[in-house]
Design goal:
The chain has helices at residues 3-14, 20-32, 34-54, 64-75. By secondary structure, it is mainly alpha-helical. Helix 2 (20-32) crosses helix 3 and helix 2 (20-32) packs parallel to helix 4. The chain is globular, with a radius of gyration of 13 Å. The structure holds zinc ion (ZN).
Amino acid sequence: MNCREISEFLMDYVGNTLDQDVQQTFQAHLTQCTNCYEYLSQYRETIKAGQLACHDDDVSELPDDLVRAVLAALSKEPRT
Ligand SMILES: [Zn+2]
């Protein structure tokens, strides 16, 4: 899965409607790609703002364990 595909799957991912195998591929990419991780963070902030505005709770929060896993992976990057 490349970055362009990530952006296409983002809405489904945040909405928790991806197939499990697609979701795992998506998460694996996020642990390796800072750009997509930051893009996802911004996307979540946008959704949060939207939820505050219209009290729409259709879109699920990301699971905390995924966020921790991504942060752990990022912090473990080898120093070069
Ligand atoms: Zn990417």
